[in-house]
Each structure stands twice: as C-alpha cells, then as structure tokens.
Automatic annotation (TrEMBL):
Stored CDD domains: BKR_like_SDR_like
Name the record gives this protein: Short-chain dehydrogenase
PANTHER family named among the record's database cross-references: 3-OXOACYL-(ACYL-CARRIER-PROTEIN) REDUCTASE, NADPH-DEPENDENT REDUCTASE BACG
Organism: Ignicoccus pacificus DSM 13166
Organism superkingdom: Archaea
Family per record: Belongs to the short-chain dehydrogenases/reductases (SDR) family.
SUPFAM superfamilies found in the cross-reference section: NAD(P)-binding Rossmann-fold domains
Length: 261
C-alpha cells in the first residue's frame, strides 16, 4: 500500500533509539525526508550513519527540555528539509517512581520534557501547516493516559496533558486539511521499557524475565510490542490514507487496555 509519504518532510523528535528511531526508519522507507534529534551527539551520529543507507536524513543533538534547543530543532529542520509537513512528537520518559519518592524538581523536569516541549514545538510548526493547507501531527504518548501504570506516576500524570492538547488542536484546525492524532503504545521492547521493567523487578524481588512473562500474560496477544509495530501505525496516521482520521487516540497495545473508550 502506497501511503503517499514520498517527498514529505518529516520531523521526528527523540528519534535515535526505540520507537522514535523506528518511526524515522519507516518514514524513510516510504520515501520521506526525515530530520531526527536526540540529547546525545553520539546517538545522532550513529543513527544518521545507519539511516543514511535508507534515504535522505538529517539531525542534530538537542535537549527537548531547553527552549533554545527546541527553537534550534525547528530552524534546523526547516533549513535541511525546506519545511515541515509532518511532525511526530516523541520523547524519552521520566524515571519510574512512586509518588512519595518523587521530588518537585523531577515534576518540573518531566513537565518540560513531556508537555511544555510538545506545546512549544507545535506552536512553532502548526502555522506553517495551516498556511500550506496540509499537515500531520502525531503525538506518541502512552497507554498510561487511559490506564495508569504502576510506578510511573510522573508519566501517568503529565502525559494526560497531551491528550487535552491533541483533542483541542484537532478541533481548532478543522477544515484546514491538518490532522492531529495520538498513538498510545503499550509495553514495547525499547531500552526505556527495559529500564521500567528492571525497576519493577527489583521492587518486587523478581527477575526481569519473570516480570516480562507476567506482563505478557496480561496482554491478549501474549507478548510485548516491537518498536516497528508502533512505527507502522504512526506512518499510517501521517499518510494520505488517514486523511479522515483526526483527534483519535490509537492504542498499539496488543489489546491491553480493557476499557471500551
């Protein structure tokens, strides 16, 4: 199926590992031009070396919690790509912690990482899409906005802001051929998820393998997702094929979320 992404200009944040990297790779394989970011200069270099074998890709190191870095991301992406047609917002996650173990500093940092950065980047990118009369915004968030995950109070709380942001913008830009959606990954085999599961294993006095098995048993598909499976859904939402999908929360969780809505 041709997704109509050839030649589209795509910005994917936090995209040198895990789901973000898988999204960048998928977009390139569909013929899009891609701009990637990461806090680590070394990670950007390695990702570029790998992705350049697939298509036209650029990238810079930048910290999403820093305003000046966010501005530099958008400026650099526009210069490299000639504009931004598709914005895929992805971030790393805050540390896995229970509420009483968190500090105010961790709350402030998590807000900047998960919500402030989404707001700021969207405000810089959305007007260009509206002027052009076409655009796609996809926020990669988490099933935690529908089903809080034990030990992830920072993520459970602040990611809910993305839900309200997405729904509001999707209605505000109606009639402009710009769609705004969110993808909700469940348990996905990334370095971040391994960290979360290792923390849970330590807390519960279990092995990593035992925790993975327990979680797999709670998922109807009886396994964790691969990053590429999330990337496929992101690419669809960013495509011409999803032209009538707007304001949607799309779980990619193997059936984990038990609620109807």
């Amino acid at each position: 199926m041709d997704l109509g992404l050839r030649g589209k200009r795509v910005l994917v944040t936090a995209s040198t590992k895990g789901i973000g990297y898988a999204v960048a790779k998928k977009m390139l394989s569909e013929g899009a031009k891609v701009f990637i970011t990461s806090r680590s200069e070394e990670n950007v270099r390695r990702a570029l070396e790998s992705l350049e074998e697939i298509g036209e890709v650029y990238g810079i190191p930048a910290d999403l919690t820093v305003r000046e870095d966010r501005e530099r991301i958008v400026k650099s992406a526009r210069e490299a790509l000639g504009g931004i047609d598709i914005f895929v917002f992805n971030t790393g996650g805050p540390p896995p912690k229970a509420f009483l173990d968190t500090t105010l500093e961790e709350w402030e940092h998590s807000y900047k990482l998960l919500l402030e950065s989404a707001v700021h980047l969207t405000k810089m990118i959305l007007p260009e899409m509206l002027d052009r009369g076409w655009g796609r915004i996809v926020y990669i968030t988490s099933v935690a906005i529908k089903m809080p995950i034990e030990g992830l109070v920072l993520s459970n709380s602040i990611r809910l802001g993305i839900a309200g942001l997405m729904k509001t913008i999707a209605r505000e830009v109606s009639g402009k051929e710009v769609t705004v959606n969110a993808v909700l990954p469940g348990y996905t085999l990334t370095d971040r998820m391994k960290e979360v599961l290792e923390s849970r294993a330590k807390r519960e006095g279990k092995t990593f393998e035992e925790v993975v098995e327990e979680i797999s048993e709670s998922i109807p598909l009886r396994r964790l997702a691969m990053p590429e499976e999330v990337a496929n859904v992101v690419a669809f939402l960013a495509s011409e094929a999803a032209s009538y999908v707007n304001g949607a929360f799309v779980p990619v969780d193997g059936g984990l979320i038990p609620t109807v809505f």
